[in-house]
Design a protein that fits this description.
Distance between the termini: 91 Å
Shape: elongated
Strand order of the largest sheet: 1-2
Number of strands: 2
Helix content: over 70%
Length: 414
């Protein structure tokens, strides 16, 4: 009988000890949660009307001023970035230099050709042969065509660089949003790590579980630093496009104004325009035509062996023309197909955003009733922010996809 009483006392003692331990854990968790406010003012930005605003609404940064001579920070619009980049891109600078060189070469070849022709007709003892004049004429025509190509390449490069700068504009806006999301994730995982330390202290968490929580927090911090580095690099590249000195601050108007642009395309029409305007296809066709012209010229002058040598390279040039056309055709087909799928992607992104909005509102109600933890609330917030960002990106992709097709029609590949 005494043994039974002692057993009951031991059981009651064990239960009492476990109860105290659990109470201690719950008390520690409660104290920790009270030190991590939910910041309702920030979460209120994610109300349904804000989440449904075009191009991200409250997700995206506010427009401000831009850094000018008076010390204010200047804000650049989407159109301004494209226009300014056409004059300042490094590719533009290099192409302008190539154009200058091509013009100098053209002028030099023309001057040399004219001088030799003059000597040929006015100085019989000059030793200049008729065949050398033909060679000089070919050299001049080649230099002249190279100049025309460089000139056209510059004109086609300008809208391409504008497209690249505007794509970077959108990347910067999204990068800023992604940093905001990741900062919240770091905060959430830090809270989880702090909870894990408390649980570990009371024996409710193993050391491996504690280390896992810390590893996730550290990884999130590393990811945040990588995002900040990428954003910094993108802004430095944008400074090059805008011809700004290093470290000069600027802002980008948000949301971006895309203006009016075509949103429906007929694949056959796009292909026809692309084939007509492609510089690479023009060059390949010209090489075929010039080869035929040279062969005919040699045959007319009785230089059969020279004509035969040139004819041997004809198959390669014909093949190059065919492959250039095939490559351009496939590029057009791919671009048009990709664009047609962007509407469906946008609709799916919208559905996910709406679902995330509903989940967030549900989590908010549960939070008010004390039915979920703060970290569960933070997870719902992160999911909503991410879904909103994805929806904005889907809108951006729609513009970029349409612009890619429009540029293809002009013979420009991006």
């Amino acid at each position: 009988m005494e043994k039974s009483d002692r057993g009951n006392k031991d059981n009651r003692s064990n239960k009492s000890s476990k109860g105290v331990q659990q109470a201690g854990i719950f008390l520690a968790l409660s104290l920790l949660l009270t030190t991590l406010p939910l910041e309702p003012d920030k979460l209120n930005r994610l109300a349904p009307d804000a989440a449904s605003r075009p191009l991200g609404g409250a997700l995206l940064a506010d427009s401000g001023g831009g850094q000018e001579s008076g010390g204010q920070i200047r804000t650049y619009t989407f159109a301004e970035v494209g226009a300014i980049a056409q004059n300042n891109g490094s590719d533009i600078t290099r192409q302008k230099a190539s154009l200058d060189q091509a013009e100098q070469s053209k002028d030099s070849q023309l001057s040399n050709y004219q001088s030799q022709v003059y000597q040929y007709y006015n100085n019989p003892s000059s030793g200049i042969s008729e065949s050398s004049l033909y060679s000089l004429q070919d050299s001049y025509e080649s230099a002249y065509n190279s100049y025309l190509d460089a000139e056209e390449a510059l004109e086609k490069l300008k809208p391409k660089v504008a497209y690249q700068a505007q794509k970077l504009y959108l990347d910067i806006l999204q990068g800023e949003v992604q940093i905001e999301i990741q900062e919240k994730e770091v905060q959430r995982l830090n809270a989880e790590y702090e909870l894990a330390k408390v649980k570990s202290a009371f024996g409710a968490y193993s050391q491996s579980q504690l280390q896992s929580a810390k590893t996730q927090w550290d990884s999130a911090k590393d990811a945040l630093e990588n995002l900040k580095t990428t954003l910094k690099d993108n802004k430095n590249t944008m400074r090059e496009y805008l011809n700004l000195a290093d470290e000069v601050e600027f802002k980008l108007a948000n949301p971006p104004d895309f203006g009016q642009y075509a949103k429906e395309f007929d694949e056959e029409d796009v292909l026809a325009e692309a084939l007509k305007n492609s510089l690479s296809l023009k060059q390949a066709q010209r090489e075929v035509d010039e080869l035929s012209k040279k062969i005919e010229s040699y045959e007319n002058r009785g230089q059969t062996s020279q004509a035969e040598k040139l004819a041997a390279s004809g198959a390669a040039k014909d093949l190059a023309l065919k492959e250039t056309k095939q490559t351009l055709t496939r590029t057009v087909e791919s671009a048009v197909k990709e664009f047609k799928g962007l509407d469906e992607a946008l609709e799916k992104a919208k559905e996910k955003r709406d679902q995330a909005q509903r989940d967030y509102m549900t989590a908010q109600m549960k939070m008010n009733m004390g039915a979920i933890t703060l970290n569960e609330m933070r997870t719902a917030e992160k999911n909503l922010l991410t879904a909103q960002q994805d929806y904005v990106q889907a809108q951006y992709n729609g513009y970029l996809g349409a612009k890619k097709v429009i540029l293809l029609q002009q013979g420009i590949l991006v």
